[in-house]
Every structure is written in C-alpha cells, then in structure tokens.
Amino acid sequence: MAFTKELRTELVSLLGEDWVKDDPVTLYTYRCDGLTLYTAPPMGVVFPGNRNELVEVVKKLHSRKIPFVPRGAGTGLSGGAVPREQSVIIEMARFKEIHDIDWLNRTITVGPGVINLRISEKVQPDGYHYVPDPSSQKACTIGGNVAENSGGPHTLKYGVTVNHVLGLEMVLPDGEVVELGGKTFPIAGPDMLALVIGSEGTFGIVTKITCRLTPNPEKAITLLGVFDSVHKACEGVSAIVRRGIIPAAMEMIDKVTIYAVEQALKPGFPTDAEAVLIVEVDGLEEGLEEEARASEELLSEAGAKEVKRARDDEERARIWRARKEAFGAIGQISPSYYVQDGVIPRSSLPEVLDKIAQVGRKFSLTVANVFHAGDGNLHPLILYRYDIPEEVENAHLAGEEILSICVEYGGSLSGEHGIGLEKASWMDSLYSSEDLENMIRVREFFNPGELLNPGKIFPQPGRCAEVKHPAAVPEGMEKPRMVAAKSGIAV
Length: 491
Ligand SMILES: Cc1cc2nc3c(=O)[nH]c(=O)nc-3n(C[C@H](O)[C@H](O)[C@H](O)COP(=O)(O)OP(=O)(O)OC[C@H]3O[C@@H](n4cnc5c(N)ncnc54)[C@H](O)[C@@H]3O)c2cc1C
Known about the structure:
Alpha-Beta Plaits, 7-stranded antiparallel β-sheet, 5-stranded antiparallel β-sheet, globular, disordered C terminus, binds flavin-adenine dinucleotide
C-alpha cells in the first residue's frame, strides 16, 4: 500500500515533491537494511530537511496512527530500519549540518545524517578525532550509531558510542522536542541520555548530537600476528589481556576472510595462514615500545608463526583498510552472506570459535570470521547462495545456533549491531518475561502505542520475524544475480 492521496498531498506541500517517494523502485530500495534476509516494503519514504519539517511529519503520522521508522544510511545489520508494519520511513540523511565545534569543551555538535568518518576528517587537522569507528564508518551515520550504540575496532580501549556522546536533541513520537545531556559531564539524576543511546530508534528521532572529541594519540604501533590456527590466535588475545595490556584494538581475521581481502585489496596478508591477529597499541610515545615488544613476545608464546610490524603509516593504513572493508571483500566470493553478531567472555574465545566451525560443518556452509577479538565480539559471516532455499534456511538456522552458543557461554545476543527485527523473538532466551515487561514499560514511557519503529527489540507474541528472501523485484528492475564464486573456497 502506498500513501493515500490525501496524505501524499499534505506531505508534498510540507516537504516538496522531491522529498516524498512511494514509487516501486524506492519502496524496493528501502525494503531492507544491511541485513537482506528480512524485507518488507514501506508505505513510502519521506526526507525531511530540518527539525521543523520532521516535527510536522511526525505529528501528521502520529495523528493518523501510521507507524514510522527513522533511517540513516541503512547499513544496520539487525533489520532495525526495516518497516515491521506498513510504515513510513523517515530518512534522516539530509540532517548533515555541522552545527558547532567547541574547542574549549572539546565537542562537536552535528546533525544525525553526518557520516561517522566525516567527524574525524573535520577535526583531524587540529589533532583530534571521534573515537567510535565502526568498520562501516565511511557510510554509516552518527544518528544510526547513537541508535545502535555502535562500537568499532578502536573502542576496546576507549569505549563505545555511549562513552563519546554528551548530548542529544530528539523528537518524541508525538512531535515534542526534548534535549538530553549537554556539552559536559556529569548529568544530574538518572542518566536518560545513556538510556536513549542504544534504544535502536524506538524512543525518539535524534536530530542533533554533541560528540566528545579526543586528542590523537602521540604514536600508534600496529602488529600483525600470523597463526596456523584460529584457536592459537584466540590464545594470543587472552595472553595479552592477562598481562594487563589493553591495546587500542585487537582484531581477528580468519583464512576465508584473508583470502577475500587479498583478492579485493591486496594488503599483503599471508594466504597460507589460518588466522591473523591485528594488535594496535597507542598512546604516549614513552613506554609504548615496551608495550609493543611485550605484545610481540606474548603472541609468539601463544604460537604465532611470525609477528610483523607495520613499518610506516602507509602499511598501517593498508592493514586497517583490509580489516574495515573485510565484509565488502567477502561479497566478492559470496554475494549473499549473513553477518552474525554475538558477544562472549573473552576467555571463551578459543572454545566458541571451535564450536562455530562445527556449526558451519553441520549445515554444510562456509563460515568466515572477522571480529573485534579484544571485546569478545564475534562476527561469523555465514556464506550462502540466495537462490537455493535450503541454504537460505540453513544460514538462518546456523545463525540461531551460533547465538545460542554465545548465550550458553555467558555472552549475549548482540555485541554492537543491535537486536532490531532479527533477534527480537530470541530475547526470551536471555531475559525472563518479567525483565522484558519492565523494559517494554520503559519504551512505553517514550513511545506509547509503539508508533515509532514498531516490532523491534522485543518478542511479539505469536509474531516471529519471518525470513523473506529474496523480495519481489519491481517490474522493470533487474533481479540480483548470483555471481559464481571463483575462489575455490566452497560457498
Ligand atoms: C560492512 C559493515 C560493517 C559494520 N561494522 C560495524 C562495526 O564495526 N561496529 C558497529 O557497531 N556496527 C557495524 N556495522 C553496523 C552498522 O553500520 C551500524 O549499526 C550503524 O550504526 C548503522 O548506522 P546507519 O546510519 O546505517 O543506520 P540505519 O541502518 O539506517 O539504522 C539503524 C537503526 O538506527 C535507527 N536510526 C537511524 N537514524 C536515527 C535517528 N536519527 N534517530 C533515531 N534512530 C535512528 C534506525 O531506526 C535503526 O533502528 C557494520 C555494518 C556494515 C554493513
């Protein structure tokens, strides 16, 4: 169902013809986010250009009881921006303004549509950066980061989004505008700001974000441990943490992913290795060399065949590009893959990684691993062929099994990608019904009637999320093609 004629006319008179869309190609494009296993076309998509327009849009939809879903860049991997009901998508990409840089308080205030990496690019010449650096940072928006409480490789030492956002402006589902926090810590009373960060676009639509700016480290040293087993690489992670060293980042890349990034980006990783572990230490120059040497020794003791060191900034950038673009590189060997996101206690990494490999074998699917090892935040990538229904089903089952292993080992359903639509029906494996009811009560305080982003985070009785893939392609549009994998690696 598209917009009614009356609603469309009202929205067009408010936003202009260009910013109200309900043609088949738009509806197809916005049917999913980065998690393509779950799709549903919206009623239409609107693109407000400022807060006042947003407030008016929200009031119109609210008064008609039409559900609405905020959306940033659509890189989310848990279906958070997928319309659950026949909903209107409110695309926030036009909120790109950099409102203010306050050097005294070391903050930057931006619109939610600003791309994550733009913030660091903006303040880099002055020796600062914005810490949370999701691997999707070239594309994802800061609004989406706030909604998901995003992390990244360098959040191991420095903390995730909630540790770097000081204030928010937000439009509630009835159109009221509220401000939370400011430019300085601490907040008096209950920390409502922290409650909103990570609420996955279900408490309000964020319109302004004040971020903390962090001085660049004096120096960074990047190591690459080369291992002949993932198990040993995981031991390397534990050894470093046990010694009391907190690197800025510790990232694991397994054999399948090494192969993919070498095909796509040629970072120079050894293709005969079973795993490489990127370890970066940073901070004041004084003492850093000792930390790097200790890490090198610990990696060798854990069984590394070789520990390399990035010789210069160029080599360091090459290593990081390979890590951050690894998901995209996997697309070259298997256009369809299901990214899982679970978190486990770091101490269980070796055992859980072995179990994940077993799950792959059980479902005859290749599972690639590239993840934030230092946080115990796993990202198994389950490769499947989208045009073979059993493989689609098996990918889903394998993902579910991997998550239940994470929970069994004392971990959780999501390390950073959120619960969204994907994992809502699994939340009762982690929480009692009383806990869930209490959390739903908190949501009701912000979002009574659940018109804002319905069906997310919490299980809906009798309404498990269905796997629908692929969605109907609108007439005249080419069906996505399965590109045969030439890799020699079974997909
Ligand atoms: C290749 C790749 C790598 C990734 N790596 C990481 C990683 O390292 N770390 C990590 O944490 N995540 C990672 N992600 C996941 C994703 O990029 C993040 O969750 C990101 O924060 C989503 O931002 P977005 O702008 O794309 O949001 P969207 O996908 O558009 O939306 C995500 C959620 O935010 C809500 N939302 C969006 N804008 C607003 C707003 N203004 N107000 C309120 N709610 C809003 C939506 O309703 C939805 O629930 C990765 C994804 C990909 C595809």
